Structure formats: structure tokens, C-alpha cells
Amino acid sequence: IKASDVNQAGHLQIAGVDALELAAKYQTPLQVFDVGKIRQAIRAFKRVFEEEGVDYEVSYASKAFSCLAIYQVINEEGGHTDVVSGGELWTAMKAGFPMDKVSFHGNNKSRAELEMAVDQGVGVIILDNFHEIDLLSQILEEKDASSKVMLRVTPGISAHTNEYIQTGQVDSKFGFDMESGQADRALELVLANPRMKMAGIHAHIGSQIFDVRGFVGCADKLCQLASAWKEKYGYETDILNVGGGFGIHYTDQDQPLPAEEFVRAIVKEVKSKCQENNLKLPAIWIEPGRSIVGPAGFSLYTVGSRKDLPGYPSYVALDGGMGDNIRPALYQAEYSAVVADRPQAEDEERVNLVGKYCESGDILIKSCPLPKTEPGDVVALLSTGAYGYSMASNYNRNPRPAVVFAEDGVDQLVIKRESYDDLIANDLKYQK
Ligand code: LLP
């Protein structure tokens, strides 16, 4: 925690708003975003591209956190966004996000989703497999329409990360394989289809990556492919989209480069490889999700029960848990926490910070160093902005928390807390 995160009362503050006031005003569990941090993250990426003098897009991967308000902020910052479902696309549309600045991803987009994308004039559809090429060409034919497309390829890079969140290796469900001729065949199909305008090549190697070599390797592979395609088909790519995955700080074990430094390394690699291979310098697109919203998010919970057992770490239970943040249970993801009214207090014990869900695995932080807590204390988990709310569930029929945006000392509700009535809104009584 930085000194700037603590106010005069000694409390945690988020964008100048006292975390205790937020907890009292909106109740807990509560997800809060420091909107200034989101803006800064986007601007830092843009600055690097501007300094390097390349064409670019920063395309926010909205699976990390999707709601009307976030698309508004991304749009205000001049960003693109990528969506992976009809639901994300719908949300972006309803937020007034310009459809021509949307990329549509996914390994099994449905006919209905593709039709929606074509009808709405989505900027680019990122083709993932042969079935989709087929489906999209049918749809374009039926609608007498055309679409920009990119081809997603697997560059054969295994980034060192949790196996569930690595995607660039050969054995992945995503994208066209580069080695076996799949990618070539896909390009042939796209180039032969006058309704498809081939806009660029895409790859994404994984998520929460710290090692810049993975990205450089990916950039290198894409340049090789671009060069091979120029030679073989006379097709020269306008865009290289290198995906997202830039790692962020969750605990002090994580020492990532500033996210924009990954980008600098990628840009330098693309520049040098293009020069080497006599390719025109394409625009470089990135798709960061986590690094844009992750560090900006704070989860506020209230302490309740406690279980002490001699010889074992104590359990301190919070009023949320795996329903609003599945990442620890699913990926053994780690977080840090502070007590909101004394974030700089000395740690006095190590406790298992657990949730309220009926599962032994509902542990938000194992062996978490904290000052002694009492029921009623507000605890904040840090850097929870990515893949927390967006992966939330109603497990145990717990309502999803509210989400608040804070900026320049002002807080505003952007997603209401679910009510019990919301939970049964789609339920129908069984009649026999
Ligand atoms: N582009 C594509 C094609 C992706 O599949 C992803 C993430 C991203 C961009 C954004 O990656 P980011 O910059 O956020 O790392 N639920 C997991 C992460 C899954 C990521 C899936 N794809 C987690 O909570 O760690």
C-alpha cells in the first residue's frame, strides 16, 4: 500500500474516497474501482506507441470486467475493446461504444452472435477456426454484407503461467495452428472470399505473464508468418495483434515490469523483424484486460466469524468469497489484503481469510498476514479488478455485490447489488 492510498484519518482511500465510508454507504461485499488508475493504464500504453512512432490500438479485453460504465470509460480514453460473447457485445452496444472499434473474439461464436456482429457493424471479427469461416461466409452472403476479419493463430509459445490461462501453445483450443498448414489454408479461404477483408494476424499467448521473452517470441513468430504470407500469397498484413496477458502485482512475490515496458519490447521486436524481412511496418494492436482494470480494483468485505484451533492457522471469515472472486479457488491465485481503518498497522498474525460459501476451498487468502481483526472490521483485498466480478456467480444463492466507480474524490454506483428478488427473477414455479 502506498502513502497516497491512506488519508488523514489513517484509513485506506480509493481515488480520494475513504474506504470505510464506501463500505458504510454501499454495504459489503463491495467492488470499487479507482477510475483514474484505469485511465492511467491506458494512457501509459498509448504513450509507448506514440514514443515509438507506430500505428496502434489499445483494445481493452473486456472479459476482465464488463459493464456499461467500463465501456464508457474506455471510449472516453479513445480505446478499442474486444468482446467474446453476444452478451459483452450487447453491453458495449448499450453503453454507446462505437461498434467499429470492437473486435469480436471466441472459439465457438454462434450463428446468432455472428449475425449480431455483422448487423451491428463490429469493427473486426477475429476468426478462430474453419467452422467459423464457413458460418461467417454464409451469413455475409445471406445479408449481402462484408466484414473485416483477422486470423487467430497459435504461435507455439508456452508462456510460463497457470495452465488454465495459457493459450498460445500448439495444444490449445484456440486459433489456427501455424506448423501444420492450417493457418495457410485459413488465409487462402479468407483471401478467396470477396466479402471478407483480411485485416491482420492475431495471437494471444496467455495471461498474467511476467517474462517479456514470451511476447518477444510471439512477435517474432507473427513476423515470420507475415513474411511467409507475403512471399507465398503476396499478402502483406496491415495489423499484428499480439493479444494481452501483461502480468500485474498481486503480492510481493510478483515483480512485473511496468505493463507498458512489455509493449516497448514487442514494438522493438516487430520493428527489427520487419526491417530484416523487408516488410512494411504494420500497426501493432494489444489486448490488455488485467493490466488495465486489475490494479484499479479493490474488494471490500466485512469480517464476521472466526475459528481458532491450537496449532493451526485461524480462520477469519468475510461476508463474500468464491462467489465474487473465484480466482483463488480456481487458479490458486494470490492476493494481498489490508484492514481498511489501519492499512499501515503492523501485522500481528497469519490467518486464513475465508469466505462464506459452503466449500472448504472457499479461501480468499491462505496464511494472510494481518493485524488482529474484530467482527465488523472492513478488510480490503487489493488488485481485484480483473476477472473477479466478471467471473462472479450466484453460488449458494448469494447476490452479486455492487460495483462503485471512484474518481477525484467522488464515488458513483455503476452496478447495483443484486437483490433476493433478482435471484429468483428467472425462476418459474413448477406446475404439474
Ligand atoms: N486477448 C485474448 C484473445 C484473450 O484470450 C485474453 C484473455 C486477453 C486478450 C486478455 O488477457 P489479460 O491481459 O487480461 O491477461 N480468468 C483468468 C484469465 C483468463 C484470460 C483469458 N483470455 C484469470 O482470472 O486469471
From TrEMBL:
<feature type="binding site">
    <location>
        <position position="290"/>
    </location>
    <ligand>
        <name>substrate</name>
    </ligand>
</feature>
<keyword id="KW-0456">Lyase</keyword>
<dbReference type="Pfam" id="PF00278">
    <property type="entry name" value="Orn_DAP_Arg_deC"/>
</dbReference>
<feature type="binding site">
    <location>
        <position position="327"/>
    </location>
    <ligand>
        <name>substrate</name>
    </ligand>
</feature>
<dbReference type="GO" id="GO:0008836">
    <property type="term" value="F:diaminopimelate decarboxylase activity"/>
</dbReference>
<keyword id="KW-0028">Amino-acid biosynthesis</keyword>
<feature type="modified residue" description="N6-(pyridoxal phosphate)lysine">
    <location>
        <position position="63"/>
    </location>
</feature>
<dbReference type="InterPro" id="IPR009006">
    <property type="entry name" value="Ala_racemase/Decarboxylase_C"/>
</dbReference>
<feature type="binding site">
    <location>
        <position position="387"/>
    </location>
    <ligand>
        <name>pyridoxal 5'-phosphate</name>
    </ligand>
</feature>
<keyword id="KW-0457">Lysine biosynthesis</keyword>
<dbReference type="Pfam" id="PF02784">
    <property type="entry name" value="Orn_Arg_deC_N"/>
</dbReference>
<comment type="function">
    <text>Specifically catalyzes the decarboxylation of meso-diaminopimelate (meso-DAP) to L-lysine.</text>
</comment>
<dbReference type="InterPro" id="IPR022644">
    <property type="entry name" value="De-COase2_N"/>
</dbReference>
<dbReference type="InterPro" id="IPR022643">
    <property type="entry name" value="De-COase2_C"/>
</dbReference>
<feature type="domain" description="Orn/DAP/Arg decarboxylase 2 N-terminal">
    <location>
        <begin position="36"/>
        <end position="293"/>
    </location>
</feature>
<dbReference type="InterPro" id="IPR000183">
    <property type="entry name" value="Orn/DAP/Arg_de-COase"/>
</dbReference>
<feature type="domain" description="Orn/DAP/Arg decarboxylase 2 C-terminal">
    <location>
        <begin position="296"/>
        <end position="385"/>
    </location>
</feature>
<feature type="binding site">
    <location>
        <position position="245"/>
    </location>
    <ligand>
        <name>pyridoxal 5'-phosphate</name>
    </ligand>
</feature>
<comment type="similarity">
    <text>Belongs to the Orn/Lys/Arg decarboxylase class-II family. LysA subfamily.</text>
</comment>
<protein>
    <recommendedName>
        <fullName>Diaminopimelate decarboxylase</fullName>
        <ecNumber>4.1.1.20</ecNumber>
    </recommendedName>
</protein>
<dbReference type="InterPro" id="IPR029066">
    <property type="entry name" value="PLP-binding_barrel"/>
</dbReference>
<keyword id="KW-0210">Decarboxylase</keyword>
<feature type="binding site">
    <location>
        <position position="359"/>
    </location>
    <ligand>
        <name>substrate</name>
    </ligand>
</feature>
<keyword id="KW-0663">Pyridoxal phosphate</keyword>
<feature type="binding site">
    <location>
        <begin position="287"/>
        <end position="290"/>
    </location>
    <ligand>
        <name>pyridoxal 5'-phosphate</name>
    </ligand>
</feature>
<comment type="subunit">
    <text>Homodimer.</text>
</comment>
<feature type="binding site">
    <location>
        <position position="331"/>
    </location>
    <ligand>
        <name>substrate</name>
    </ligand>
</feature>
<dbReference type="InterPro" id="IPR002986">
    <property type="entry name" value="DAP_deCOOHase_LysA"/>
</dbReference>
<comment type="pathway">
    <text>Amino-acid biosynthesis; L-lysine biosynthesis via DAP pathway; L-lysine from DL-2,6-diaminopimelate: step 1/1.</text>
</comment>
<feature type="binding site">
    <location>
        <position position="387"/>
    </location>
    <ligand>
        <name>substrate</name>
    </ligand>
</feature>
